[in-house]
Amino acid sequence: MLSAAFASPDLWPIICLSLSVSLSATTMAALIGLPLGAALAIWRFPGSRVVVIGANALLGLPPAVVGLALYVLLSHSGPLGALGLLFTPAAMVLAQAVLALPIITALTHRAAEDLWAAYGDALMDLGANRWRAVPALIAMGRLSMLTAVMAGFGRTISEVGAILVVGGNIAGYTRTMTTAIVLETSRGDLPLALGLGLVLIGLTVMVSAAAFAFAGRPTW
Amino acid sequence: MRRFLLPAALVLAAILPAASVAPAAAQQAAITLASTTSVDNSGLLGAILPQFTKESSVSVHVLALGTGQALDVARRGDADLVLVHDPEAEEKFIAEGHGVNRHQIAWNDFIVVGPEADPAHVKGGHDAAAAFTAIAKSAAPFVSRGDRSGTNALELRLWRAAGIDPKSGAGSWYRDIGGGMGQALNAAAAMPAYTLSDRGTWLSFKNKGPLLVTIEGDPHLINRYDVIELDPKKHAGARLDAAHRLAAWLVSPEGQAAIGAFRVDGEALFQPSAASPR
Questions:
Q1: What ipTM was reported for this prediction?
Q2: How many other CB atoms are found less than 10 A from the CB of residue A209?
Q3: What is the extent of the structural domain holding B39?
Q4: Fewest CB atoms within 10 Å of the CB: A85, A220, B113, B251?
């Protein structure tokens, strides 16, 4: 199985595209979701509960629906068609970022809420204002935040329903690990499909291990 | 210091992959060919298109879809050329004003594959409609694509010719899986069940299990592949010049020779037929 996967000449470009699309999408989602999740823990404003409930509800956002909605938006006959993004890696990044955003936001909020309850007064006593408390909460809870980001990454790297629709699984251009697995299954080459699956699992383990090694141990 | 590591890593992670995706998105203008799984998954397009790209320096992005879906993608303006195999759907596409210049580029045939045990006793026959009647009478499992593909359209025409409404067998022997040819063959191999397949996908399919060819050689089972260009009146935004070059290449002697030379395990999957359409 694994030998079948490693014998495939297209393996490395596919791995590179999978990683770059999913890491880009996760990063976009993290840059929005981490501060948003922390801010939702610090500020209470009319509607903030709705945003939190919404983020939690969207944890189960169906990838096929996200893909379809983006397809309709990005299609040449759709409102954003002039951008020419349909069937490109950029459209895949966008779709996966949409899927990862609620996960990162909801999990960040969960962790930040507890930290704010425990240390919020202390932070304010030390002279921080609420704006400074946002990065402070993220830094304090960075292992929880990292879990949130990695949960988002897990969603993106394993996802196939959305990128198949907006990427088109074009050989050498938008074919990723997951869409290649679907393709090889449909070709009846089950050993190759399974081998690709094992490589994909290995990749996610490596990315996760690297992320946690980099973040280090908690200091509080 | 450490507290800055995670944000720094995030920013770094943002820049690196974005930088690697950007050149891919900005690479030379390519045309999008909406085609069917049978010509792509069999390996035909992967084998012949590099030759076209070398001669024309036009690169081709292939979307492998069912015929119905491929035509829909082109209707919305998201493809520059279509290569499909459902004459009725193609005529509708052209009548709606979306397509022009239809040319047959190749043909092969459809086959009915089924379990070795052959519960409907149809093996060796040459009449698809009669075989469908026998399958329905014996209530032997039959897998339908159910995805508006060219193969699915032919299957429904064959049921009509046999005078049978297959939906009456839904929930028991008639199994509409709503998927591609490969999915249908995987399902048929597992059940096992009969199904209609194009020969190209069948020959390149690697998980045949207990399945074998039961019906072939019926003139109704001919499978024609047509390339259709988009009408510039409706699809001015498409890259029609480059698409026209590909369409012209596919029917040219070079393109036809490339199609004829494509083999899987020594067998020719597609017969070039631009000069004498079937």
A1: 0.82
A2: 10
A3: 13-107+224-272
A4: A220
CB–CB contact A135 B63 (8 Å): no
Whole-model pTM: value is 0.87
Written out in words, the top-level CATH class of the domain with range A2-44+61-213 is mainly alpha
C-alpha distances (whole Å) from A93 to each of A193, A208, B22, B78 are 23, 19, 11, 19
Clarify whether residues B138 and B202 are in a common domain: yes
Residue B175 domain-assigned (yes or no): yes
Residues B115, B198: one domain? yes
Write phi, then psi, for B33 (nearest 5 degrees): -105, 115
Task: Give me the residues paired with residue B198 across strands.
Answer: B110
CATH number of the domain at B50, please.
Answer: 3.40.190.10
Scanning every residue of chain A, which has its alpha carbon at the shortest distance from the alpha carbon of B27?
A173
**Nearest residue of chain A to residue B9 (CA atoms):** A214
What is the arithmetic mean of pLDDT over A176-188? 93
DSSP structural state of residue B29:
P
pLDDT band, very low/low/confident/very high, at A8 (cuts 50, 70, 90):
confident
Q: Do B9 and A214 touch (CB under 8 A)?
A: yes
Q: CA-CA distance, A36 to A52, in Å (whole number)?
A: 10
Closest alpha carbon within chain A to B62: A170
